Automatic annotation (TrEMBL), chains A, B:
Organism ancestry: Bacteria, Pseudomonadati, Pseudomonadota, Alphaproteobacteria, Hyphomicrobiales
Gene3D superfamilies: Winged helix-like DNA-binding domain superfamily/Winged helix DNA-binding domain
One Pfam family named in its UniProt record: MarR_2
Domain HTH marR-type, residue spans: 3-152
Range of residues in the leader sequence: none
PANTHER family the UniProt entry points to: 4-HYDROXYPHENYLACETATE CATABOLISM PROTEIN, TRANSCRIPTIONAL REGULATOR, MARR FAMILY
SMART domains in the cross-refs: HTH_MARR
Protein name: HTH marR-type domain-containing protein
Organism: Pseudovibrio japonicus
Amino acid sequence: MPDDTLSHDLTPYFSMFVEVGIINQIGSAFLEARLPKGLLVSHFGVTSHLSRGFDGATPLELARAFQVAKTTMTHTLGGLEKHGFVELRPNPDDGRSKRVWLTPAGREFRDDAVRQLEPLFQKIAERFPPDQVSAFLPGVSEFRAVIDQLRDEEK
Amino acid sequence: MPDDTLSHDLTPYFSMFVEVGIINQIGSAFLEARLPKGLLVSHFGVTSHLSRGFDGATPLELARAFQVAKTTMTHTLGGLEKHGFVELRPNPDDGRSKRVWLTPAGREFRDDAVRQLEPLFQKIAERFPPDQVSAFLPGVSEFRAVIDQLRDEEK
DNA sequence: TGTTTATAGTGCGATATCGTACTAAATGGA
DNA sequence: TCCATTTAGTACGATATCGCACTATAAACA
């Protein structure tokens, strides 16, 4: 009997998803409390993603990156546009599509938010140093990559 | 200069929260796709929590456990009650409060959902074995505990 | 004991997110 | 080239979540 037909103890997956759910809630609350009124984690997430080498991404690419419905991304981008943080221009490669570009104001919004978080992260660092996070981060990333792949396969 | 005044590289925290956000989205989608129509991750989360030794918790305790607003928990419990999955009874120890009790139907809903997830988790196990999750899970839990504590201290 | 303050739960309005359905453009095949 | 199918984005309605305000009860305390 080959290894991969052995039954596994699946409880670690349950525990992992539970922990992740709580960390996500806490992290979102931390961030949102430090954003200007009316701006949300989703807005920060998009500007941050664009600023990290994905400027000019399409709305659909952004929706996939964050694993949200494309209608949700339309809504989020609308908010960012209203604040002047992104510009949507036609996609020259595809008439159905658009490309999202970060404005200077958008970059500033993102950088400000990062700065606002730093004191909190310093506090975390006193109790849970960053290299301890670095120790398990590759594993967590790999896990994310695997389930990301599986999700795509589920169509 | 003592260690804890040294400046740290905080990027692992950012990366961690980003990964956690995506894992949470994917995990929620996985679960929700396997729940009966009209029932959500929040409903599963509460029944699962109750069944794991917290039966009789108060709504506020549940809101804190999941880090959601107490009005959100009121809403979630309303849905569970409508489906007959929980019962809310007065809290004999506190006239302002209630206690939430899982019904047999609620326990079955939870167990069914777990069963529906098993094939998927087996698939994950083929590509990312559970003991690899177990390897970093304690670190992740500890991280969660630390930020949980910090959140409480933020008032 | 009476009064002030804090806490548990809910009603309500605002909005973020999602699923469905639609339009327009691209793609693939006859 | 024409038509069927797929894909990108959006409009719309449903609902999950949140913040604020309110009521009832408990706790603190003069």
